[in-house]
Amino acid sequence: MAYWLAKTEPESFSYSDLEKLGQDRWNGVRNFAALKHMKQMKLGDLVFIYHTGKEKAIVGVAEVISTFYPDPDETDERFIIVDVKSRYPLDRPVTLKEIKSNVLFQEWELVRQSRLSVMPVSEEHWKSILELSKLH
């Protein structure tokens, strides 16, 4: 199993929207590095859902429930989507500020390439984010 992070603008589509739907397409990705990561997603992989904008925080976990396929709403076959389902919200959001202030995350794309909308998460980073979400 691999771990990922996918960003969304909560005003357009939030983690709670995904929870209400149960599952949905993860679409709208246009950056080719991010699309390359989406092509590597496998069934059962877990995905941190990150809210951009004012929130700037990891808020929940989803599961990949399909391999990638062409976005039916696009004419360019390079634009793909995967289907995801909600798994659980984090105990509390883990903010970008917290992540940037922690030396453990210095080399993570979330810190180094802030505009990348889909990125891998190492197992160490995954576990650390889950631990941080439990701290109050």
UniProtKB/TrEMBL annotation:
Q: Where is the EVE domain?
A: 2-132
Q: What is this protein called?
A: Predicted RNA-binding protein, contains PUA-like domain
What species is given as this protein's source? Answer: Pelosinus propionicus DSM 13327
Q: Which Gene3D superfamilies match?
A: ph1033 like domains (3.10.590.10)
